[in-house]
Fold this protein.
Amino acid sequence: MRISVYRPEHQAKLLRLMEHTGAINPTRMVEQLIEEAAMRLDSLESGTNVIKQHQEEQHP
C-alpha cells in the first residue's frame, strides 16, 4: 500500500504511527507553539510600550 500524505485518512494514520514510535510528541508540539506565541506577545507588548512612551514624550 502506498501512503499519500495528501489523503486525510493517510495523514491521520501517519501521525498516529509517528506518535506511537516517538517520532513526534503532540503535547510538546503544542507547548512549543504556546511558548512561541507568548514570546511574540511579549515582544508586541514591549513594542507597544515603546510607542506609547514615545508618543507621551512628543505630546505631554
About this structure: The mean pLDDT is 86.
